[in-house]
Structure formats: structure tokens, C-alpha cells
Amino acid sequence: MRPRPVRRARGRVGLLRGVRQDGRAVHCAWLRRQASVRLRRAQHVVGAVSVFAGHEKTVTYVRFDGRGRLVTSGTDGRHRLWELASGKEVRAYRGHANARSFVGMSVWRSGGLIGCGSESNEVFFTTSGGAPIWVQSFAGRTEEEEEAKAFVSAVCWREVSEDECALLAGGSDGMVQVYAGRRKV
After folding, report:
1. Which of 74, 49, 45, 51 is nearest to 62 (CA)?
2. Per-domain boundaries in the chain
3. Most CB atoms within 10 A, among 30, 116, 133, 146?
4. C-alpha distances out from residue 151 to 97, 121, 134, 147, Å
5. Membrane-crossing residues (predicted)?
């Protein structure tokens, strides 16, 4: 049996950046205009359920946090946390550098942490407070590697358990590092 599409979007819907299924519906996050995200139900791809606008520059990443919220990341150097139900911005996160490159961003769903890369060649860990709680440099590079202006380009959480995680981070120069973490009780 060959898979076949069950629904197609016609016209200009934008770039698909995130998908979430919550048991009732499948939501898709689309980049329609550079600085905004439109949330649509997969069953009704044409009409937006919510529009999240607030970034000053292009939105590069969208992630669902598992708690009814959406995290967006943009080349304005900000992450923004949004309530899905109301469409309102809860918080803006600052600290990482992201003016031109696609630095990675990921959410530890049960732990409430955001991990992201930076053009400063660092990994940032942020919680609901808004400011980074931990910043780790991709250290151990030669002078040539530092001069190449490497940056952290990809991050991904691995949830080991509800209280334990690992963050895999990769650099634009091919370096990969794994960070292990445990929730404080």
C-alpha cells in the first residue's frame, strides 16, 4: 500500500515549522510572514487558529512545550513563549546571539527548559524566568577553528525520564557535545 495525502493545502500557507498532536487535534505551526507564526489545525489547513506576532526579524524555529504553549525563536536574538489557547505572549527570552544563522532550539517538555545554540559558539539553557540559567562554551578549539566563526547550529533534547535529560548540541564546524542534566527536587 502506498501512502497518499489525505489533505492538501492550496495557495500560500507558508513554511511548516512544527507539528503537535494533543489527542483532540493536530496543530501545525506555519511561518507565513517573516516575523510571525500561524497556528492551524491540520484538518483545516487554510484558516489560522491563532497568529503569534512579536518577533522583529525572521522566525527560524517553532517548538511545542507540552504544556499548552509554543516557543518561537527568531533572528532577532529572542525566544518567545506563547499561550496556545489565548495567543498571548507569556515571556521573551534574551541572551543568545542569532542575527544571521539558524542556531538550534529545543524544548525539554517535562522539564520546562529551553536549550539553544548561539552565534557566540555557546549553548544556552533557559527556564521560565527569562534569563539563561547556564551558558556553556564549545571549548577546546584551535585558533583556526575559533577564527572560522563557528556557531552552535543544532540542539535536541533527549528525555531519559521525567527528571533526567540529555541535550545533544552540534556546531557548524562538525563538533558535537552531549550535556546530561537532572531536575533539582
Report:
1. 74
2. 15-182
3. 116
4. 10, 4, 17, 11
5. none
Encode pLDDT of 72-127 as tens digits. 888 888 888 888 888 899 988 877 877 776 778 888 877 778 888 888 888 888 87
Number of H helices, E strands in the chain: 1, 15
Residue 80 near residue 52 (C-beta atoms within 8 A): yes
What's the rounded Cα separation, in Å, for the pair 92 and 61? 14
Closest CA to 107 of 133, 145, 69: 69
What is the predicted pLDDT for the residue at 146?
Answer: 61
For the domain spanning 15-182, the CATH number is: 2.130.10.10
Q: 27-40, pLDDT tens digit by residue?
A: 566 555 566 666 65
Q: 110: which 3 cell numbers?
A: 517535562
**DSSP classification of residue 144:** H
